[in-house]
Design a protein that fits this description.
Layout lengths: L1 H5 L1 H31 L7 H5 L2 H27 L19 H4 L17 H8 L1 H31 L7 H5 L2 H27 L23
Helix pairs in contact: 4-7, 4-9
Length: 223
């Protein structure tokens, strides 16, 4: 029970993720088969659908926009600030901060991760590991979206008796960027809303909010 409590946030989001992914697969299958029926084509099974390029591109294009959102937020908040927002560092603390404040090298404590106590490449990698992993996840999911999207797009073109296109032609096409930018703009709007609204609005008990009685100008203060 203690383990469940200590990991309840991750577990809750993991469960919701799999439920949403499963729901997307079922709804997508029904929609896909309805379209197949309308076109007089053969319907597909659940397994055929979830291993298809049509399902893969829908999943990957959402994943890449989410990872882009977090990558940009992680990296930009190192140097950029927003007065009054708990999502920002204090205005006078922009930058990568001192070794002492980051508790690395000679300033590391006994409980610090091992790579925080060493120097050189290992320290650099560990110091930037969150941004590197989020950035890599964005690039890989973007590539997955482009490959699956090309396959799905070419399948539609062949069905219309048109020639398939190359990967490069697809990733420079309006089709690809229409799908991509739809996701990007919504994610960026969500981050902007969180940064600005958290200046003036509160959620008692949430670490994403300032304490209810904190001044609107208080920056980098979490409840």
């Amino acid at each position: 029970m203690r383990w469940l409590k200590e990991n309840s946030l991750a577990l809750a989001f993991m469960i919701m993720f799999f439920l949403a992914l499963g729901g997307q697969a079922v709804a997508g299958l029904l929609q896909y088969n309805d379209q197949q029926l309308a076109e007089g084509a053969e319907q597909v099974s659940f397994l055929q659908y979830v291993t298809s390029s049509s399902f893969a591109v829908d999943v990957a294009e959402n994943w890449q926009s989410e990872y882009l959102q977090f990558f940009l937020f992680i990296m930009l908040t190192v140097w950029l600030v927003q007065k009054g927002s708990p999502e920002s560092k204090k205005v006078d603390q922009a930058g990568s901060e001192s070794d002492e404040k980051q508790r690395i090298g000679a300033h590391a404590g006994s409980g610090s991760p091992r790579w925080a106590r060493v120097g050189g490449l290992r320290l650099w990698l560990f110091s930037n590991s969150l941004g590197l992993v989020m950035g890599a996840a964005f690039v890989l999911s973007w590539l997955a979206q482009s490959v699956a999207g090309q396959a799905s797009y070419n399948s539609e073109r062949l069905g219309d008796l048109r020639d398939p296109v190359s990967w490069w032609s697809y990733v420079t096409s309006p089709e690809f960027w229409d799908r991509t930018l739809q996701n990007w703009q919504s994610e960026l709007l969500a981050v902007l809303s969180m940064v600005v609204l958290s200046i003036y609005l509160r959620q008692r008990g949430s670490p994403e909010s300032k304490p209810v009685g904190a001044p609107h100008t208080a920056t980098g203060v979490e409840g």
